[in-house]
Specification:
Helices cover about 35% and strands about 15% of the residues. The protein has about 450 residues and is an alpha+beta fold. It folds into two domains: about 170 residues, Creatine Amidinohydrolase, Chain A, domain 1 (3-Layer(aba) Sandwich); about 270 residues, Alpha-Beta Complex (Creatine Amidinohydrolase), CATH 3.90.230.10. The C terminus is likely disordered. α8 packs antiparallel against α9 and α8 crosses α13. The chain binds glycine and manganese (II) ion (2 copies). One manganese (II) ion binds next to loops.
């Protein structure tokens, strides 16, 4: 992803915001890494995806790079990245190299990553505090590197205060920044959502009894890549029949049968931003009576949650509203007995609805950010008030497995309906409605098999 120069300024702005916060904590040095490439098998690597926090502060998408920020008498931002290497670039593609990266991305300085271990100890000397992120996939390696740099720094100077003696985790402050999306981020997320919605429409048009889950996965990927998305945001879930009751069933080789419901939870990542959509439809194009009854309950639950997705509400309001509608529906259909309040209080609905109604969405599909009021993200804090610029999913579901306690006509019905919502000043905007959600509209799309070209 090579962004035009006018779009690069946001990364420098974020670094400057973080440096200001570091000063408020007494100043010091921050070190953040993006992972090196990892071997998949023999000399073949996994497709590289940059670390989200690192990207948020740099815009730099190459592997094996480090960001160093110094909040001192004079602030400095430094990048350590892979050096130019004509032979490797012949095989793997052009690298920025330190000099061009510094100029393009606006770092005060950039160096070859092979110089990191030599440079860091001297940067640590005399620095009171170190800031970093010690959770996540890079943390064991990062911790070892930091210990080695500190030991090397200590060896060159006397006195216990010669190297950082205080540690501050950056996760929470960066998560707070990432939680509110700016206009450019929302633009990208809308574009990702629109592509993903098209993928779902195509999958519905192609689905029919006798086809495999993996064939629908292929249709989704076709649309995502055809419209420029670099990747899926997460492995595609395509689940037919009983598989739909497995929340994260990966598309496999099961065959869609007449009478099955098919649940697809799949979406693309575009320019580093995720989308996340689920739709559920009948393999044969027509919902059965029991399928339609449960489908409409889930849709009503989603509507109830969306109505409470606004800056006037707390995070949990949507989930509570969805649980209420789902539980009443289960009582109405005879899948539960007793009173609404009783079924909610005892958790009797949970065998049919065992997940939350949403999560933050952003660069990561389950994006960062506390669901409780800051500063502490612990269980005692009230649920967070929603704010314009937050993005979340709204994804209620019902999952009815084969059971002696459930009428047979409901067995193996798994339904989830998931849309992505941007909180606005007045409520929310569902940005994934390029794929219809009403049962009648879905049936109409599925009658339209013929418009799909074989390409
Ligand atoms: N696609 C994963 C989820 O909906 O949380
Ligand atoms: Mn989701
Ligand atoms: Mn999903």
């Amino acid at each position: 992803m090579n962004l035009p120069a006018q779009d690069i300024s946001c990364f420098a702005r974020r670094r400057s915001q973080l440096l200001t916060w570091m000063h408020s904590q007494g100043g010091g040095i921050a070190v953040l890494a993006t992972a090196p490439e990892r071997v998949r098998n023999r000399d073949n690597h996994y497709t590289f995806r940059h670390d989200s926090d690192f990207y948020y502060l740099t815009g730099f998408t190459e592997a094996n790079a480090w960001l160093v920020l110094i909040a001192g008498q004079e602030d400095r931002s430094m990048l350590f990245c892979e050096g130019k290497h004509p032979e490797r670039e012949l095989w793997d593609g052009v690298r920025w190299g330190p000099q061009a990266a510094a100029e393009h991305f606006g770092f005060d300085q950039a160096q070859d990553v092979s110089e990191l271990d030599l440079s860091l100890p001297s940067l640590l000397v005399g620095t009171p505090r170190m800031f970093t992120i010690l959770s996540g996939p890079n943390s064991p390696e990062l911790l070892t590197r930091i210990q080695n740099w500190s030991a090397a720094a200590r060896a060159t100077v006397r006195g216990s205060r010669a190297v950082p003696h205080q540690w501050t985790d950056l996760s929470e402050v960066i998560a707070e920044m990432r939680l509110i999306k700016d206009a450019a981020e929302l633009h990208t997320m809308r574009a990702a959502a629109a592509i993903s919605a098209q993928g779902h429409v195509r999958a519905m048009q192609v689905a029919r009894p006798g086809r495999h889950e993996y064939e629908l996965e292929a249709e989704l990927l076709h649309v995502f890549r055809k419209h420029g998305a670099q990747s899926v945001a997460y492995d595609s879930i395509v689940a037919t029949g009983a598989n739909a009751c497995v929340l994260h069933h990966r598309a496999g080789n099961a065959i869609m049968h007449d009478g099955d419901l098919v649940l697809i939870d799949a979406a693309c990542e575009l320019d580093g931003y995720a989308s996340d959509i689920t739709r559920t439809f009948p393999a044969n194009g027509k919902f059965s009576g029991p399928q339609r009854a449960l489908y409409d309950i889930v849709l009503a639950a989603q509507r109830a949650a969306a109505d409470l997705t606004s800056p006037a509400e707390r995070w949990n309001a949507g989930h509570d509203a969805a649980v209420k509608v789902l539980t009443q529906g289960l009582l109405d259909e005879g899948l539960l007995q007793g009173s609404l309040d009783g079924a909610i209080e005892t958790g009797a609905f949970q065998p049919f609805y065992m997940h939350r109604t949403g999560h933050w969405l952003g660069m990561d599909v389950h994006d960062v950010g506390s669901y409780r009021e800051p500063p502490a993200s612990n269980e005692d804090r009230p649920w967070r008030m929603l704010q314009a610029g937050m993005v979340l999913t709204i994804e209620p579901g019902l999952y009815v497995r084969r059971s002696d306690t459930v009428p047979e006509q409901f067995w193996n019905i798994g339904i989830r309906i998931e849309d992505d919502a941007v909180v606005t000043s007045a409520g929310c905007e569902l940005i994934t409605r390029g794929v219809p959600v009403e049962a009648d509209e879905i049936e109409a799309i599925m009658r339209n098999h013929a418009i799909v070209s074989p390409s």
